[in-house]
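Bug #77: duplicate submission created two jobs. Keeping one. Sequence:
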Amino acid sequence: MISTLQSKSHHKAAPLRSTASLLQHALVRENDFKQINDNYGHPAGDTALAAIGARLTDWAGPRGIVGRLGGDEFAVLTRIEPRHQDLRLEHLTRLMPRPFRHDDGPLLLAVSLGATTPTAVKATDLRTLMRAADAAMYEGKHTGHIVHARPDYAAAASVNGRPLGRLGTALRGRAA
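Kept job's structure:
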């Protein structure tokens, strides 16, 4: 279900890069992952991660790339027509918090979303797109809304002392 970004990127990233104006990069983080693990156990946390991965995979579509960066963070790279980007991102914000099934009953997900496009941050390399989406995601965590990255987000080095745009284990070819 959830493949590493590296393994998928070899096959899918070239056509995505060739249409940079259609590219959408999003980072998603489950805000209450520790509480889910602490209150319901690690199997519930695993179920939450699987639910997030499945929803992102469905949202990204067959030509999208979804990967778990580690812990409770995921990255998505997909093509969306510019005129549909806001609508598709709003769909994602409605899709993610739906309850998922666990033995103790339905549990809710609370996620932070950050999104960017090469046009928005005037860059096409994955590291810069991730850094911008990462900064946007952390702003979204505090506002409760999806945040679209601005050009200055691409230059941000860290949030709260945490380096932004780190590629994580998914991009280094190891499952997270």
